[in-house]
Amino acid sequence: MTPSEGQVLFDGKDVTTLSPDKRNIAQVFQFPVIYDTMTVYDNLAFPLRNRGVDEARVDARVREIAEMLELEDRLTTRAANLTPDNKQKISMGRGLVRDDVNVIMFDEPLTVIDPELKWKLRSKLKELHQKIAVTMIYVTHDQTEALTFADQVVVMQEGEIVQIGTPVELFERPRHTFVGHFIGSPGMNILPCEVSDKTATFQGHRIELEGAITAASGRTEIGVRPEYVRLGEGGVPAVVRKAADIGRHTVVEAMVGDVTVSAIVDEAPPEQGTEVGIIFEPSQTRLYADGWIATEEARP
């Protein structure tokens, strides 16, 4: 496939026109790609043998990867007899066993794994990444996986990149409302507002923002995470609709007119129907115009 524009560079080398086998890319798919009739050992050895690697090197590398993946005691077992998580370990091992790859691409590799085992495999993959120091591109719809693994996260919406940054940057300062909604649980409050004379108002109340408004055309909204919303006296009048205890803290939903605002509180939540004041932390409250951030970044 030829890109519509631009180049693909690995360490400065243009590989745009090279055939896939010349680019040295390993891929781990959503479902295990292994040979059930082969042993674990032969599955891991196959990518190396297929490239004519010396058998002594094959043996050393297979045993090294098997130890990393905690498969060393199953090397003589046929893959067909393994559990789904161990089959996926083999699939990951086949991508990791080559030491000449430029990048390893993971396409939602934990989708078929039992939820209880996902945490273990996530930790194992993070450990492997640190050990082998190879570039990994990991595609996932699970924000927990993205934030667990990544040094840099690329968030896409309908094929368009809306933000690239560290997990902290995506959480602390979403550049698009989709990022704010997608990253975090619960996601960012996205509240319709009016803008006049460089001032934002929500349900008739002036809202202090992180910095000056840079744009105000199109659909305007205020974005603030529930972590930076508190309940107290003053602020925007609201009525508590419900509270959900999620363990470490409680998520309170309050109604301002017909708009729901979520707040995360550590203390005992007010009862349903209680009138409260909603207060937004100014340094974490931003204006968005047609989805894109439209306030200047707050300075320390």
TrEMBL record:
Keywords: ATP-binding, Nucleotide-binding. SUPFAM superfamilies: MOP-like, P-loop containing nucleoside triphosphate hydrolases. One of its GO terms (molecular function) is ATP binding. It holds the Pfam family OB_MalK. Residues 1-183 form the ABC transporter domain. Signal peptide: none annotated. InterPro entries: ABC_transporter-like_ATP-bd, ABC_transpr_MalK/UgpC-like, Mo/tungstate-bd_C_term_dom, NA-bd_OB-fold, OB_MalK-like, P-loop_NTPase. Belongs to the ABC transporter superfamily. This is ABC transporter ATP-binding protein.
